[in-house]
């Protein structure tokens, strides 16, 4: 189960970056397809939406650390970080998403003549399904990296 440390460190990093890239590109393509226009900024840096790239990255980190090092202090810390990130994506960031929608609606109804510079971003947090798909992408990338020995 344990590998040469330098190889496992590279493979852990590669699985994380691969998971993030797959999730972010999938998110961008789905967004562009739904909007029927290409938005390169969202394609690369988009927040919220399907799937969660944060969840994909940290789950790839947690699972690949476990696959390469077994049950260790490092893998336990990685799983704790994953759980905190998943909770944040579905909790705090989703609440911020709801608040942004409410504030934007208040601005439209209460101040129709005011021209605010730009509305708040409403696509910040994630639904549980979006986080679950991100975790699955991370798990698949971690498993693929661990099999590529």
From TrEMBL:
| InterPro entries from the UniProt entry | DUF212 (IPR003832)
Alphabetically ordered keywords of this record: Membrane, Transmembrane, Transmembrane helix
Lineage, uppermost ranks? Bacteria, Pseudomonadati, Pseudomonadota, Gammaproteobacteria, Oceanospirillales
Q: Which residues cross the membrane?
A: 56-84, 131-148
In this entry, which stretches build a coiled coil? none
Q: What is this protein called?
A: Divergent PAP2 family protein
In its UniProt entry, the species of origin is given as Zooshikella ganghwensis
Source organism, top-level taxon: Bacteria
